[in-house]
Amino acid sequence: MNPLAAELNELLEKNNPHVLAMLSDLGRNLFFPKGILSQSAEAKEKAHKFNATIGTATENGGPMFLQCIQDKLSAFNPADIYPYAPPAGKPQLRQLWREKMLKENPAQQDKHFGMPIVTNALTHGLSIIADLFVDEGDHLVLPDMMWGNYNLTFATRRKAEMRKFNTFTEEGGFDVASFKACLKKTADEKGKAVVILNFPNNPSGYTPTVAEGDALVEAIKEQAEAGCNIVVVTDDAYFGLFYEDSLQESLFGKLANIHPRVFSIKLDGATKEEFVWGFRTGFITFADGAPGESNAVLAAIEKKALGIIRGTISNCPHPSQTFVIEALKSPDFGAQKQQKFEVMKGRALRTKEVLNDARFVDSWSYYPFNSGYFMCLKLNRVDAETLRIHLLDKYGVGAISIGKTDLRIAFSCIAEEDIAELFDLIYQAECDLA
Ligand SMILES: Cc1ncc(COP(=O)(O)O)c(C=O)c1O
Fold it and tell me: How far apart are CA 36 and CA 32, in angstroms?
């Protein structure tokens, strides 16, 4: 083991050994090297004459660039576009995102947590978590309605075992009892669990009520008190798109610092929130549960996360970080976001209105939804994949089939005035097959 990794592990052992126990074998071996990056950081401060440290090219006191590229990006300073961004991301972006998080998540305000680290959007954040905390056979606790890509990131890449709980009760609430039972079983079997809570949820479009959210947090605390080490991840990809009377903030704020055996991780980003899917700008933020605001634990885990970033993608794209900084600083940001929120909310509410037509009763019911980009139909009479193909072939309508009964509809992509027609066509297709 590299002595730097050993040093980080000793810090964890001393300040919160439960977090050390949560790490994967790879996680234990990770460190952030004192190589080119730290030498060039030193040079940046002190090398006033010549700085011949890092693998970029310079000219006229700034980065070298091609004018044909700069011509299209002329609103930006070349220094904010072309050089490598720091491995943890641009400091200004991290600070602005932290401030945004605090403003939008009241429960986080009196909690101790780290600075957000920039990731190549949320998928990358998930893979960092998988690398740091998941070994073969570790249990991943998540609802049966989940984003399918978790399979690749956790099960295929890291050989986690997926332990799924039932998402909804018969009455249409979040099935907290099923979550509790699933977590307890994992706790009893393994003494360690990695939990993913994704609200607004993909694919259902559901965010729990405040009471359901509190019950989830309580269930996690209960198992921690019983001796289970729990890594709990809030995947807040669709954060802020809350259209009804649900929880209006991330559960991360309530989970942070609740117990030394609970290590909380918030994943969020500009991808879906700011409608910049291709920018690839996300964040990973850690909160330790050890008493006494353990900066040492956060510092050690953050260094390990930077190690995996350095060893995989080296650092995240610089231009998109600059673009997001400009957006967050813009005086128009709030008003423009609100305007798009209203558009998305209009589509969600219109979807509900259309679906309440009694005509559809024999064909399907729908899962509860109140947030995000999606909703799911639960088909009564026909196979979801058969319907999906028929819809495409005969009606030119695309949707996603999940399992035998569920059809996911991204209302985020359908103009409010087209929603009635969309469900008319799905209904016609369903009747063709039934
Ligand atoms: C629940 C959930 N998490 C994470 C992601 C990935 O987001 P990103 O594009 O930022 O990697 C998605 C994207 O569809 C998602 O639905």
Answer: 11
Look up the domain containing 364 and give its range. 334-433
Q: What is the pLDDT of residues 106-152, one digit of tens each?
A: 999 999 999 999 999 999 999 999 999 999 999 999 999 999 999 99
Contact 175, 188 (CB under 8 A): no
Crossing angle between the packed helical segments 121-133 and 295-312, to the nearest 10 degrees? 110
pLDDT given for residue 292 in this prediction: 66
State which of 82, 110, 140 marks the end of a domain.
82
The DSSP H or E segment spanning 192 is: strand 192-197
Number of structural domains (the chain) is 3
Pocket residue to mutate for ligand 1, from 150, 198, 236, 271, most atoms within 8 A of Cβ = 271
Residues 259 and 396 in one domain: no
- Do both 15 and 151 map to the same domain? yes
Task: Split the chain (434 residues) into runs of 10 and give each run's mean pLDDT.
Answer: 97 96 98 82 83 87 96 97 96 98 95 96 98 98 97 98 98 97 98 98 98 98 98 98 97 96 98 96 94 84 97 97 98 98 98 97 97 98 98 97 97 98 98 96
Domain end (from 49, 64, 82): 82
Nearest CA to ligand 1 atom 3: 237
CA of 259 to the centre of ligand 1 (A): 28
Using CA atoms, how far residue 232 sits from 235, 245, 281, 421, in Å, is: 10, 24, 22, 41
Q: What is the DSSP string of 106-122?
A: GGGTT----PPEEESHH
Residue 251 Cα to ligand 1 midpoint, Å, equals 17
Q: Whole-structure pTM over 0.90, yes or no?
A: yes
CATH number at residue 169: 3.40.640.10
For tokens 């978790």, the residue is: 150
Q: Using alpha carbons, select from 208, 231, 214 the residue that is nearest to residue 143.
A: 208
Distance (Å) from CA 123 to ligand 1 centroid: 6
Ligand 1 atom closest to the Cα of residue 282 is: 10
- 292 Cα to the center of ligand 1, angstroms: 33
CA distances from 191 to 10, 183, 186, 225, 328 (A): 22, 10, 7, 12, 42
